[in-house]
Amino acid sequence: MSGAGIDASILFVDKPNGNYLPAANAPQIDASINTLLDRAAMTNVRDPMGIAVSPILAPERDATGQLRVDDVTVAPPTGIGGIGEQVFKDRGALDRSDVTGPVAILLNPQDNDSEGLDLDPVQTIVHFDGDVIEYFEIQLTDVNGVGPDPNTVLSEALILSEDGHALTEGVA
């Protein structure tokens, strides 16, 4: 993907920090093929020796174990549709298939706890009468994905409030 006319800055999510997931609308999305036949020069050498052909096969899963899927926001490039069974694979080791992102779960205090301490039944809102919460514990999970990007997990991206007033990290 280093040919003329391709801006390398749009290929990956965050190349300087080692995040080589394909960026949104990058040209390598859905641009692979399932099978590339063995090169004629190689088969000419191998056939007389009885060595079988060895086509190049694109794996069903990427390097993180994610199933390669179609990115519905990107149309496959023209001219490669008839070569493989499906063109839902990104070129390279990583596929842009984890689009749901992680989920935050409040562990302490527990939202809608079994003891009935949370007085508000709405998810993500915890209401305690008179109890002092000494600390907050939040777990990020990504059941079907590659996990949260640690470079984007920032306390500034989270708002905790008490009676409508934002709490400040590190201040009791």
What does this protein structure show overall?
Strand 1 and strand 2 (19-22) form a beta hairpin. The termini are far apart. This protein has one helix and eight strands; from the N terminus they run E-E-E-H-E-E-E-E-E. The protein folds into two domains: 1-97, no CATH class; 100-172, no CATH class. Helices cover 4% and strands 15% of the residues. It has a two-stranded antiparallel sheet. A two-stranded antiparallel ribbon has the order 3-4. Strands 5-6 form a two-stranded antiparallel sheet. The mean pLDDT is 80. It is mainly β.
List the helices and strands and how they pair.
Blueprint: E1 12-14, E2 19-22, E3 35-36, H1 40-46, E4 56-57, E5 103-108, E6 137-141, E7 161-162, E8 165-166
Characteristic key phrases:
single chain; 172 residues; mainly beta; two-stranded antiparallel ribbon; 1 helix; 8 strands
Task: Give the gist of this structure.
The protein contains one helix and eight strands; from the N terminus they run βββαβββββ. The protein is mainly beta and 172 residues long.
Could you tell me the number of beta strands? 8
How helical, in percent, are the residues? under 10%
Structural class: mainly beta
User: Which regions have little confidence, pLDDT < 50, spanning 5+ residues?
Assistant: none
Specify the overall morphology: elongated
**Number of structural units classed as domains:** 2
Mean pLDDT: 80
Largest sheet: 2 strands, antiparallel
Helices and strands, in order, run as EEEHEEEEE
Number of helices: 1
| Terminal CA distance | 52 Å
Biggest sheet strand line-up: 1-2
